[in-house]
Amino acid sequence: MRTLSTSGAHDKEAKDLVKTEADQQEDHEDNDAAPMQGLASLPVFFDLAGKRVLLAGGSARAAWKAELLQAAGAEVDVICPDPGAGIVALAGRCELVHLTQRRWQPEDFNGMALAFGDFLAKDDAAAFYAAARLARVSANLIDRPEFCDFQVGTIIDRSPLVIAISTKGASPVFALALRGWLEALLPRAIKLWATAAEGWRAKLKVRAPSARIQRRFWEMFVSKALGARAPEAADFDALLTAALGESRGETQSPRAQGSVALVGAGPGDPELLTLKALRVLQAADVVLYDDLVAPEIIGMARREARMIAVGKRGYRASCKQDDIIAKMIMLAEAGKKVVRLKGGDPSIFGRGNEEIASLTAAGVSVEIVAGITAALGAAASLKLSLTERDRARRVQFITAHAHDGRLPDDIDWSSLCDPRAASAVYMGLRTLEALSQRLLAEGIDPFTPAILVERATCPDERRIFGTIADLPAKAATAAPSGPCLVLIGHAFDSASERQNEASRTVGSLSA
User: What is the set of active-site residues?
Assistant: First the structure.
């Protein structure tokens, strides 16, 4: 299990992020280690504003490349004898894209910063590349890595922040998948902070000419930029005041404001974690996690974050709720970004209101990040809908576990017996027998389908199919030990029928 990195280690990480080129050169001169090797290609960001780029081709792929180039400020000369509709339309609406309908010629490379080509025939691509080499213009032939002086990576655009991913042409699909993962980690306001940095850099050099003060300013800037909120005009003065204060020997800069996010980890499958939950986890200083959260999800948190187990399990030794709340307040008041990671959704039987009220009363900022609750995960795993026009007009989530561990007395039994309702019973394994007997006494159809799902969406998920009358006996025989959910209602007829058909098929094959 990871432990909390010291504040010194965290400061070092921030400093490494904002080291200047001169700093890195000094580090390199003092480094006796073997030089870096094996870099597949050198990532370079090319300023194309006001420069000319040649593009030979008229396909949809060429049109996308032309749109990308003009977005970077390039004057794009597109040359193609028979351009497609996309490139024609782009040239008509973009003043930086100039279309000439003829074959390319060697003199077209004159004055070009870069050249791109899109050709079906390999010989045509080779000829274009040879002409570019002769004109000493770096070229890229679309989908022909053997004729490329450079690659255009998959782009994440938060301009002026731009991130590019390259596999050196080996697997563009892989690069796209990585882009999606990184997109999820970036705070929504990161573009605004990058824009603010553009405006603040010149102002900072005037107000704080010392390189040391500037560095400290940007160290603290990084910490704020990776948070959730957008920058404000007052942030510049606050950061500068803190940096100047430290330079004068003041012992403490203003303490960062901490926060708490109640985050839903979903029903178990790590792939069901939401993008927002992943981003918040990646920005956390401390994560307080429940027992039911999958280890794979816990492992997605920021590597330097402190991980604290605060599991609460029925009928077992557990952390007290008051202690958990006190710990969250203490950590937030110390300036930490705290994540309270809960199984399922934090608003479904997760005592969220208690935590929200206590945190709010203590003046701690609270955010709720929704998760997929167990009932939805179980329904998806069973390939069924919780609603059906002719069978289930209402979905209801209930808990069959009161504070004393017994079946609650304040349940609306008539609603659970309603044949037009689909019911999901949380924490109902220990009280399943009592629940079944009470529903039968209240008049529920004894043949109403009832399904117990253990560890919903996990690789070791187990289902027990039955009716409200016989499910308790079947569950007792199976003796499930993991978290269980019970689904009750005629909306689940189809799932029960599929299970019965599968059982009959297996039986006939065995015979």
Answer: 290, 312
